[in-house]
Amino acid sequence: MRNFISSKMGFFTVAALFIWLKSYVIYLTEFNLDIQNLLQHFLLLINPISSTLVFLGIALFGRGRRVGGYIIIIHSIMSLLLYANAVFYRFNSDFITLPVLTQTSNFGSLGSSIVSLVTWTDIFYILDILILIVLFNWSKQVWSADRMKIKRPLIIMALGVLVFSINLGLAETDRPQLLKRTFDRNYIVKYLGAYNFAIYDTLQNLKSSTERVLADSNDIVEVQNYTDNKYAEPNEELFGIAKGKNIIKIHLESFQSFLIDYELHGEEVTPFINSLVHDETEDFTYFENFFHQTEQGKTADAELIMDASLYGLPQGAAFVTKGKNTYQALPAILSQEQGYTSAVFHGDSKSFWNRDEIYKQLGIDYFFDEAYYDMSEEQVIGYGLKDKPFFKESMPILETMEQPFYAHMMTLTHHHPYLIDEEDATIEPAETNDSSVDRYFQTARYLDESLEQFFNDLKEAGLYDDSIIMIYGDHYGISENHTQALSELFGEEITPFKYAELQRVPFMIKIPGVDGEGIVSKYSGQIDAVPTLLHLLGINAQNYIQFGTDLFSEDHNGLVAFRNGDFFTEEYAMVRGVFYDTKTGEELEPNDKLENLKRKVEQELGLSDKVLQGDLLRFYSPTENWEPVDHKKYFYDENQLMISQFLKEKWLGTEEEEVADYMDGFLDEDVQHLNKQTSNKKQ
Ligand code: GP9
Ligand code: MN
Fold first, then answer.
1. What ligand is nearest to the CA atom of residue 292?
2. Is this prediction's pTM over 0.85?
3. Distance in Å, CA 369 to ligand 1 centroid
4. Rounded to 5 degrees, what are φ and ψ at 633?
5. pLDDT (tens digit, 9 = 90+) per residue, 326-340?
6. Which residues surround ligand 2, an ion (CB under 5 A)?
7. Second-level CATH architecture of 219-618
8. Is 299 an active-site residue?
């Protein structure tokens, strides 16, 4: 035994056993893989074997003692991959994908989140590596300096491939088409393991970049037929009723609908928002069965869905991976159809989620990022500017903006890990012992207060009455990893169905000149926002490729697709592939009707993906006069207001081609020149 362990093959075996054991322990303790039967558990146990044999097998090609070093390096890389996934999962309940990894520019701002997700017990995850290093130093003296026969590593790697085939075969008996359906990453990890998932994910991404190259103008026809068919005629009374009105769209970060009317320590958590929901102002209509439809892209997904009426991608954030695509999004439509000016206000760095690039493709005129705000220490917490100063300092810009405008106000303080300064906390935390969940209520209260302050300021500035005001929640704030705390809060077990029900986020809208309808129970989702707004302004949404339908239309489609393929309708739901009665939460046997709904959702998500992956809107012209958005016309420079004014003057009476030529050469010289001018002015 001792002899074996101190041999090269012995060392290899020990390393393989370690990584196998570690993977299994992490699967069981860190991930919530929803193991339903013995076969699944068996597959979970064996799935690390194939990749372990293949990857560690590579080390055996090395000469002499180097084998040990290679084994330790490969072992460490595999461990790191697993650990990074574990940490990522603790908040996101999801696995890292290649697009997420390439979004490294976001990691800086994520600092505080990551720190709160790491615990000291994680140190055990490197214990095996330390043991391997000691063992290597102890046994390497007796290792031969030769390369082992090439047959050995080859056999080991072939064995790995064989084990993989058996693994996949067994998995497919339990879950047919496992690799074809890309909806749920959890499945792939459960059946094939975290390492095979990483390989699968890499291949998927290579596939997606070739898709763009292969797409052609015929591909948009199928999509157009679909959205055309789905289109819901507007409600006649409301069509065009708010034409030319300013639109103020307010993003409530991480706000789930369950906060509404929730009482903690006998107090309402969000009294102001509650008052809007219960329509005490008689202004707002609140959609109580409105769901977020986001995935890994979180806020970025919400923004995309609510500005483009396309779904986010099953992996990563389309904001980043499809940041150069052609879009026909709300800001561009409003500008071209009715001369609106659009702006996003957000107290974070402009590159987060690749906003400073993709906003140009969406046609957003101005982007007021952290550079426009006072970011001194006492004004900042977590990701960026606190919501109260954010709204305060946005007011003067809003007041001077050219009208009609479409202004998107994006809050930030109510974001995981829900940090709050003592002086800002006006309600005691909850008492579940899960600290981020407990603070969730405090930052929600802070957000509620900041909104009230903003409403008062809007009224004072005369911007309240005559504007459309739309408020929405972007995505969940409490992930599936906190079901224990959630069940304490709700006094019931958080089943997968209940958790899906909790994915409701608020959506409410005030339309000038129209009385609020109070609480409406139609089923709907973020995808429906764009066509709803377009119709209120009197713009025909049918011309555009949009997957949602007008919320006020009689024909509104109440089939709400979740990004993982689950869905809700007023009557039925599907959660993790199981059908339910929406009202009672009872499980239902599959039948044709339910299978049909499921297929419909798959088709819709699939078509939306096609649009993004093939960059298909580049082949589509929504109206006769539509001008493709030209990113070169947008500057999110600190001097953007001045630059755009400068350009407008310059363009007056200029031929279009000349402008285009001019724009091509514009950036460097002229911006530098303008910069100089403004800094002279400041002095
Ligand atoms: C970052 C903020 C948060 O600027 O919008 O994004 P999220 O982490 O919620 O996706
Ligand atoms: Mn968010």
1. 2
2. no
3. 13
4. -85, 0
5. 999 999 999 999 999
6. 253, 298-299, 474
7. 3-Layer(aba) Sandwich (3.40)
8. yes
